Amino acid sequence: MIEYKTEVWSVDKKMDEEKEYPQITQASLWIKKNEVVAFPTETVYGLGGNALSDEAIEKIFRAKGRPSDNPLIVHIASTEQLEGIVASIPERAKKLMDAFWPGPLTLVLPKGEDVAGRVTAGLSTVAVRMPDHPVAMKLIKECGLPLAAPSANVSGRPSPTTAQHVYEDLKGRIPGILDGGATGVGVESTVVDCTAETLVILRPGGVTKEQLEEVAGETSMDPGLLNEKEAPKSPGMKYTHYAPDAPLYLVDGSPAFLQELVDKQKEAGRKIGVLTSEENASFYQADTIIPCGSREKLESVAHHLYDALRAFNESDVDIIYGEVFPKKGVGAAIMNRLEKSAGGQIIKE
Ligand code: TXA
Ligand code: MG
Predict the structure, then answer these.
(1) 247-285 tens-digit pLDDT
(2) What is the distance in A from the centroid of ligand 1 to the CA of 155?
(3) Residue 203 Cα to ligand 2 middle (Å)
């Protein structure tokens, strides 16, 4: 693989639509040469490349070490760009676009002819979204191309919510990173399949099931998300993901029960980390205690989650115990990611 001198281009996200930004011009020049650059979105940082070029897509997979059977999301800045990317747009999908775009919602639609074959990993559908971030929007407009972009992490690691996270993972592997500060939502977009009879959530995310139902009627969760025995419909959901270096166990019980688990391990000489809500942080005694937002405001947990998971890698803990959160609203996305980081290991009181 080519070694790049990974540049970091800072852009204040309070941007003036009309102005020229040399940092963004720089990034778009790389993209037009079928190279790949990282950029911020409202969910997590993406690693973008020309969605019409197999050469560019190959570079995305290589930089991330991503399994090639896991398709990418195509990012657009206007609905006109959907021409050639999708083959048709069902009425329900139009309603969702009107209500949630730009925003953290990805729609799976029948694939159009122009999309590079490698983007969809051979599927007859394509995932598309319009990100709600001025830097992302300006970049897409400036290069005039739809951008295929997975999260800008090395495959398996927690998704990046700052340019620093991207740098840790992809330094030397890509020419540059547009740094627009910390992302907002903190977990990835909701992926919804619009090609079936009713809407199906393939990956819970920033837009909740309740919000989708209000706009477009009956919406179900992919059974593969709820039941270990069913294969998930979204190829990406079958992989271990979002994992810190030390093994994570989720603890479905009281803080006192979690502390007992910590104490037992400490007796055996192990160093223990605890991933907690702000409310319970002062209760625990462990080697590294990382609070990741408030139970009263699950959006704050989503916002801090990946940074918290990455922060354990700075400590030398042997095991991490994590609290569980209610699965309502954005809690469904939080628990989906936590269950993946824990590889499904949950200890019940
Ligand atoms: O918020 C996000 O969605 C971020 C930002 C950068 O936009 N992107 C992101 O991409 O999370 P990635 O590649 O990490 O996750 C894409 C997910 C994977 O689970 C993939 O399997 C699924 O979307 N996906 C993509 N195309 C699909 C398709 N045609 N059918 C079903 N699932 C698809
Ligand atoms: Mg990802």
Answers:
(1) 999 999 999 999 999 999 999 999 999 999 999 999 999
(2) 13
(3) 11
